[in-house]
């Protein structure tokens, strides 16, 4: 059992769910959340756990080697769940340097700090690297799935940076015997997701009767997983997965963007008491994302067969919960969508 667990990026979307799960489930472990609080990091995501005795927040940058070395020493970290990253494909197209810096150099910095602190004693230690299915590239519309054996073929600066970081983690395992595990997950949805991503962005725009920018013809396919199911998978693999292994995590839940968007529209309209389909008129087809991957779909049978994990939530239930959460937490949304982010968003769409 790891005692002092470092979760990086814990103030972000997925990280906040992992922190919440671990703080509640493991009262005898110290959970250290290290986050730089970039535009995507928000301590409001963790209000309900911030005063728990086994929780510590540290503001810091994973690229800062000296700070990371001190952090490992100060808390005697024996387990790492590494989620801190730049995570949005559209931003990576505009600003690839930041992605290489944070995702590649930041991961390497953490690996080195962990290796130095653990100093060859790997027993009881673990570095769990959180990655994405986007490293595998794009699938055709033919029913095939990404498995753990699929060759890496990243297309966006985001997925290229994540692929590179995955390679560094595996290189540490293969070179030093470093105790690492990598997981590649499909698209997550649920509460606390930054509203630059499709689902929260569209829920918010429908509420405010703003245009819904559908890239290309809306035919791209993503495989959606409720974020708490991802957090449970991380818990399972962090504690019971095998060193040096990769586990794919997915929902077996593929949706064409335009079909998903129509489900969101129907759900928001119903919950706001609007006539069915009232917000369909907001759908606005815009120039496609450069290099837009056609289809992602994960085969997560290895995780089910080896460790017994499977998604717990049906998609209809997950979307209903998600829409209700965003509508009930408008203040959380307004705090984010005012100011700097609103300016970025306007520039994105007027500048494309
Ligand atoms: P997010 O953008 O919501 O959160 C990222 C967090 O990392 C933020 O809190 C941010 O402040 C922090 N951060 C960024 N740079 C940092 C730095 N230099 N030092 C310390 N903290 C820093 O991202 P997310 O959607 O929660 O994704 C978390 C992880 O999961 C990422 O590694 C991402 O690649 C991966 N992932 C995401 C998805 C998805 O659908 N969102 C799917 C699969 C994998
Ligand atoms: P996104 O949430 O950005 O996740 P990812 O690019 O990592 O899959 O986008 C999900 C899908 O929705 C993707 O195919 C791009 C598309 N999309 C739009 O059509 N319009 C939008 O405004 C956004 C943000 C995404």
From TrEMBL:
Coiled-coil parts of chain: none
Recorded GO MF terms: dTDP-glucose 4,6-dehydratase activity
Pfam families: GDP_Man_Dehyd
UniProt cofactor(s): NAD(+)
Record keywords, A-Z: Lyase, NAD
GO biological process annotation, one example: nucleotide-sugar metabolic process
Domain NAD(P)-binding: 6-322
Reaction(s) this enzyme catalyzes, per UniProt: dTDP-alpha-D-glucose = dTDP-4-dehydro-6-deoxy-alpha-D-glucose + H2O
EC number(s) given by UniProt: 4.2.1.46
Matching InterPro entries: dTDP_Gluc_deHydtase, NAD(P)-bd_dom, NAD(P)-bd_dom_sf
Domain of life (superkingdom): Bacteria
Similarity comment: Belongs to the NAD(P)-dependent epimerase/dehydratase family. dTDP-glucose dehydratase subfamily.
Protein name: dTDP-glucose 4,6-dehydratase
Organism: Alistipes shahii WAL 8301
């Amino acid at each position: 059992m790891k005692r002092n667990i470092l979760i990086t990026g814990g103030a972000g979307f997925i990280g906040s769910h992992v922190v919440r799960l671990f703080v509640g489930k493991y009262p005898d472990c110290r959970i250290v959340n290290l986050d730089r609080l970039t535009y995507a990091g928000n301590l409001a995501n963790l209000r309900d756990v911030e005063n728990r005795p086994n929780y510590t927040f540290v503001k810091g940058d994973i690229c800062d080697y000296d700070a990371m070395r001190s952090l490992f020493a100060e808390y005697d970290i024996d387990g790492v769940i590494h989620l801190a990253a730049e995570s949005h494909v559209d931003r990576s197209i505009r600003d690839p340097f930041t992605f290489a810096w944070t995702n590649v150099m930041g991961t390497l910095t953490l690996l080195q700090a962990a290796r130095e602190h653990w100093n060859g004693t790997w027993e009881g230690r673990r570095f769990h690297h959180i990655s994405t299915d986007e490293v595998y590239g794009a699938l055709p519309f033919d029913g095939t799935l990404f498995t753990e054996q699929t060759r890496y073929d990243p297309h966006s600066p985001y997925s290229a940076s994540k692929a590179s970081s995955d390679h560094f983690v595996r290189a540490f395992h293969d070179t030093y015997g470093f105790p690492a595990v990598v997981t590649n997950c499909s698209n997550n949805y649920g509460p606390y997701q930054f509203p630059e991503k499709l689902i929260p962005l569209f829920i918010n725009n429908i509420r405010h009767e703003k245009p819904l920018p559908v890239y290309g013809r809306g035919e791209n396919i993503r495989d959606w997983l409720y974020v708490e199911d991802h957090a449970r998978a991380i818990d399972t693999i962090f504690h019971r997965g095998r060193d040096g292994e990769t586990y794919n995590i997915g929902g077996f839940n593929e949706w064409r963007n335009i079909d998903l968007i129509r489900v969101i529209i129907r759900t928001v309209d119903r919950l706001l008491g609007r006539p069915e389909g009232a917000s369909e008129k907001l759908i606005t087809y815009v120039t496609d994302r450069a290099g837009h991957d056609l289809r992602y779909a994960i085969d997560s049978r290895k995780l089910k067969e080896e460790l017994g994990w499977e998604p717990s939530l049906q998609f209809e239930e997950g979307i209903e919960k998600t829409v209700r959460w965003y509508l009930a937490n408008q203040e959380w949304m307004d705090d984010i969508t005012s100011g700097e982010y609103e300016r970025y968003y306007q520039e994105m769409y007027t500048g494309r």
